[in-house]
TrEMBL record:
The protein's name in its UniProt record: AB hydrolase-1 domain-containing protein
Gene Ontology CC: one annotated term: membrane
PANTHER family: HYDROLASE, PUTATIVE (AFU_ORTHOLOGUE AFUA_2G14860)-RELATED (PTHR43798:SF33), MONOACYLGLYCEROL LIPASE (PTHR43798)
Domain AB hydrolase-1, first and last residues per copy: 35-322
InterPro entries linked to this entry: AB_hydrolase_1, AB_hydrolase_fold, AB_hydrolase_sf
Species this protein is from: Phanerochaete carnosa (strain HHB-10118-sp)
Length: 339
């Protein structure tokens, strides 16, 4: 697998940098779908790498040009991962109360429109897949202009919901989870040891945990202090304040919900992949994703067995198989000549 990293200055559209990785098969392909992969709150773009590697393996066994994968792009939310490090100064002023849910999709749109390194992506046929918060961003991305050539959207436990008591309850749960969690470790080795046995992380695949420790953490701010005050530990790249600001943002929620209803009614089709277990009492919210308010509904629905909300990190192989099925379902609606 060939990996190429890009950093894009989003100004004037947004006052941030964002980073994205392009993943290609070796040798690269020039036919098939281009996947756009959007991560969950608190994670980072590299979290998709185990899933991408497995998807490329599935695609390599697919003989027909229709339904294959050309390449994949994992694009980061500007207050997460490496992007948060680049935007540290700007985030001190813009990520204090609420993190507008439109920022991530607008960053993705600006990133793709920038033609990174002169690449012309206008001819690519996109499938946009988003996990959790990334599902919100995937749906909102379809509303931005100029419109991208999006063939389908895949929601992996997407957190899209209209105003309801169930959504209010979910907000309470998230607020209580984010603030008490540890966020400083003496080294990445210590961080990996802690996460390997911590609730919420110990069920993760080993590769996903190692990627989180490498890309989801950053040098502690005190590492810049001179001796004897220096501290060479690590902390969260998307710190607890940034994460909580994402949860508090609500202005985009109703817009994302209405856009999802538009997609259910008029397309492009929406495929839904859900965890088998529901540790946050959100079953009713998940089921609401499947039905169109006006007409239509999810084009396909799958459940990933023996998983909870973080299933792309827990079972990347099963996640890749589910995504592959969604890609094949998308190709069945698309004439071969279009790929």
């Amino acid at each position: 697998m060939i990996k190429t990293a890009y950093t894009i200055d989003l100004r004037p559209q947004l006052p941030f940098y964002t980073t994205g990785n392009r993943y290609q098969t070796d040798p690269p392909r020039n036919v098939g779908y281009t996947l756009i992969l959007l991560h969950a709150t608190g994670l980072h773009k590299e979290t998709w790498e185990p899933v991408i590697q497995l998807l490329f393996g599935l695609s390599s066994k697919h003989s027909a040009p229709q339904g294959t994968i050309r390449e994949a792009w994992a694009i980061e939310c500007p207050n997460h991962g490496q992007s948060a490090v680049l935007n540290e100064k700007e985030l001190e002023h813009t990520c204090t109360e609420e993190w507008d849910g439109w920022i991530y999709p607008r960053a993705v749109h600006a990133f793709l429109a920038s033609s990174p390194s002169g690449l012309n992506l206008s001819e690519h046929k996109f499938i946009v897949a988003g996990h959790s918060m990334g599902g919100n961003a995937a749906v909102l991305l379809t509303a931005l202009t100029p419109q991208l050539h999006i063939e389908s959207v895949v929601l992996l436990d997407g957190t899209i919901a209209s105003k309801s008591p169930e959504r209010d309850h979910m907000d309470i749960i998230l607020a209580q989870l984010v603030w008490p969690k540890p966020d400083v470790w003496r080294s990445r080795k210590d961080a990996l040891r802690w996460h390997s046995s911590a609730p919420g992380f110990k069920s993760w695949d080993k590769a996903a945990l190692e990627l989180f420790v490498e890309y989801g953490l950053k040098a502690h701010p005190a590492s810049k202090y001179p001796p004897p005050f220096t501290f060479k530990g690590v902390t969260l790249a998307c710190n607890k304040s940034y994460e909580a600001a994402c949860y508090r943002a609500k202005t985009h929620q109703e817009e994302a919900w209405e856009q999802l209803q538009h997609l259910h009614a008029y397309g492009p089709p929406v495929h839904v992949i859900l965890s088998e277990k529901d540790e946050f009492s959100g079953a009713k919210l998940k089921q609401a994703l499947l039905k169109g308010k006006y007409r239509g509904g999810a084009a396909s629905v799958q459940y990933v067995e023996n998983t909870s909300h973080m299933f792309p990190q827990q079972r990347p192989e099963a996640t890749a198989r589910a995504l592959w099925k969604a890609i094949q379902a998308s190709s069945e609606r698309t004439p071969a000549a279009k790929l």
